[in-house]
Write a structure and sequence with these properties.
With about 675 residues, the protein is α+β, with helices and mostly antiparallel strands. It has a seven-stranded mixed beta sheet, sandwiched between helices. Strands 12, 13, 14, 15, 16, 17 and 18 form a seven-stranded antiparallel beta sheet that branches. Strand 14 and strand 15 form a beta hairpin.
């Protein structure tokens, strides 16, 4: 028995691309790091207000003390634990430096340093928690239950997690498919954008493969389960993201990479500055004062601020232009990339089809406008994406759309209706030059048609019949973003090599997009693990890959890449949380712009480190070779801190943002 549905106007189905998964988001204040950082910030702001307002010293002193305790206890504890493991990190050094600043009256500076560290730790904890939330939430894409058919024909609703290989499932119209398997009976269309990224539903007939979590169309299917639920494509995506997150090299800011040696060196040198003069008969007070001065001028406050202001300013500037960069580490990594890899659907294209060619057949008596109006009239009642694109094209041209009667839609075949008293069908043309089998909506790919025009190559082509006679064809393509070509050219100029196109869509469509955007390395028909594998392969050659995508199927590649950017408007939760940055407004030209901004920030970091290093060297030599007065040492230290801070703020200027251009 074959399940086939030929029905009048079915309810519009929710696309699997846009169907939201239940939210499992960790609240910010549920994280202890965030609560302590908020308390430290509030206490610091209160102390600053009291200090500037002329309040008694004890009043703002108490507020600053609260900031020290609430923001500093956790890094101090971590530093002591590291010390117990015979390592010394910059966290403990920062706490000591903050306490040293307080000891010589620079309470505000020490409190500010504590707040910066506490806030950084809270942001890192939040990013980690949100990524874990999205990985868990991805499992909600697959349905909780499925309808299993027994050998005697009876039906049973069972948990999807309990399905076994060999079970037979009934997938009704509009249901999510419960397991990876093979169609045994029935014809329908499945929206599998979450898995392959294909923008249009794909026809499913007996023998075709289906995936758990994809959305069935208007037909009913009988499916044999081929994979255990734990081994489904959706489950493998979860595993890939988790493994990539665990195995990805630890991300650190530049200064953190040398923090151990620097911290040990400063502590050892401070002890030497105190002990050596004391051993040669110097007074205890003088030796202690010299050592304290050395500790202050050698402390890494200026070095820390040399790194953070440029990166934070770049983050703020990018945010004003619709790009959310999640952390200073993420901003730094963006500028390190030297190869770009791009998804197609939803990234280079908008993920929505548009009519690109209307071709009346000779002898049909129709021109382009009349053919388009005829097809739009027949397709008007349909909920199919191609139908909506045809109707939209007719409306854009201001064409009148006649009322269709006796409308029917047949999964995998197309639609039929009576328009102006004459039968019209839009769908697969049985007598046309055959294209690749089982294209969406009964269409065929123009890449296989010898008579296809340049605008039709790689397009989806439907044929219009009237009175049973073909009268013309319509070519539809996934709409290319207006700035796609300029963006790929800009990325090529930035990295020195053209971006790689990684897509789950068919080769003809991928080739069309590559030709339009100037790309030469095209890898099509990739499953999520294939995309991640392609990224790994490129990185094994020593390259650092920037991957840009938007869907669930892009999440493993986003996690595997050196740096990842997600398109935000239609991006899946998992992609948005896995990526290092999100283009909120879906402006593709923002991708090369934020890479340029990151590289500018990295240059300023180097400048600041040179400035800070010069100040520290001069002050340290002065203190060791002569007698550096403590107030002068503090002034020099604070002056270098202010200088590098102001230099880093240069990236807040509007001119620092340059939209993606080819040059």
């Amino acid at each position: 028995m074959v399940w086939r549905v030929s029905a009048t106007l079915a309810p519009r189905q929710t696309s699997a691309r846009t169907q939201p998964a239940p939210r499992r988001r960790t609240r910010v204040l549920a994280l202890p790091e965030a609560r302590w950082a908020l308390a430290a910030l509030a206490a610091f702001l209160l102390g600053l207000a009291l200090d500037l307002g002329g309040a008694p010293a004890w009043a703002h002193g108490v507020a600053y003390a609260v900031a020290y305790v609430t923001g500093g206890w956790e890094p101090a504890l971590e530093g002591l634990r590291a010390l117990r493991e015979k390592t010394l990190d910059v966290d403990l050094l920062m706490i000591v430096a903050a306490l040293g600043a307080a000891a010589i009256g620079q309470v505000l500076d020490g409190a500010l340093l504590i707040v910066i560290f506490a806030t950084s730790g809270a942001l890192e904890a939040l990013a980690t928690a949100r990524t874990a939330d999205s990985v868990r939430g991805l499992l909600d894409l697959a349905p909780a239950t499925a309808t299993r058919i027994h050998a005697d024909g009876t039906e049973e609703t069972v948990p999807a997690a309990g399905l076994a290989v060999g079970d037979t499932l009934l997938i009704r119209p509009g249901e999510l498919i419960g397991a990876d398997g093979t169609v045994l009976d029935g014809t329908s269309e499945a929206d599998q954008a979450t898995i392959t990224g294909e923008p249009l539903p794909v026809v499913k007939r007996p023998g075709d493969e289906v995936f758990a979590g994809t959305l069935n169309g208007t037909g009913a299917l009988r499916v044999r389960v081929d994979r255990d639920p734990a081994d489904s494509v959706i489950a493998r995506i979860v595993t890939l993201v988790e493994e990539a997150s665990r195995t990805k090299a630890p991300t650190q800011l530049f200064i953190e990479k040398v923090e151990q040696r620097y911290a040990v060196g400063v502590v050892a040198a401070t002890l030497a500055v105190f002990a050596v003069p004391l051993a040669f008969g110097a007074g205890l007070t003088d030796a202690l004062l010299r050592a304290m001065t050395f500790m202050i001028v050698a402390s890494p406050c200026a070095v820390v601020l040399a790194t953070m202001p440029p990166l934070l300013s770049a983050i703020a500037n990018a945010g004003r232009h619709g790009v959310l960069v999640k952390s200073a580490v993420a901003m730094e990594r963006l500028g390190e990339t030297d190869t770009a890899a791009l998804d197609k659907t939803g990234t280079l294209t908008e993920g929505a089809p548009e009519v690109t060619a209307v071709r009346p057949l000779p002898g049909s008596g129709l021109d382009e406008e009349r053919l388009l109006a005829l097809a739009a009239a027949a397709e008007h009642p349909s909920e199919h994406p191609l139908a909506r694109a045809i109707v939209a094209a007719a409306r854009e041209r201001g064409l009148p759309i006649a009322t269709a009667e006796k409308f029917t839609a047949t999964p995998g075949e197309g639609v039929s209706a009576v328009v102006d008293g004459r039968p019209v069908t839009v769908g697969r043309a049985r007598d046309a030059v055959p294209g690749p089998p089982r294209e969406p909506h009964g269409a065929q790919a123009a890449g296989a048609r010898p008579d296809a025009g340049p605008r039709e190559r790689g397009a989806t082509v439907v044929t219009v019949h009237r009175d049973g006679v073909p009268v013309g064809t319509l070519a539809l393509t996934d709409r290319l973003r207006p700035d796609a070509a300029a963006t790929t050219a800009a990325l090529t100029a930035l990295t020195g090599t053209p971006p790689v196109l990684l897509t789950g869509d068919n080769r003809h469509t991928a080739a069309r997009v590559a030709e339009a955007t100037g790309l030469t390395d095209v890898r099509a028909e990739l499953l999520p693990e294939d995309k991640a594998g392609a990224v790994h392969d490129i990185q094994r050659t020593g390259r650092k890959v920037l991957f840009v995508g938007d869907g669930v199927n892009d999440a493993p590649a986003l996690a595997a890449a050196h740096s990842g950017i997600a398109m935000g408007r239609a991006g899946s939760d998992l992609a948005l949380e896995t990526a290092d940055a999100v283009v909120v407004r879906d402006e593709l030209a923002a991708v090369p712009a934020v890479v340029r901004l990151s590289r500018a920030a990295r240059r300023l970091v180097v400048q600041n480190l040179v400035i800070a290093g010069t100040f520290i060297t001069v002050l340290v030599v002065w203190d060791l070779a002569g007698h550096l007065p403590l107030p002068l040492g503090v002034a020099g230290h604070e002056g270098s801190t202010v200088l590098v801070g102001l230099n880093g703020l240069r990236l807040l200027r509007e001119s620092a943002w340059r939209p993606g251009r080819s040059g």
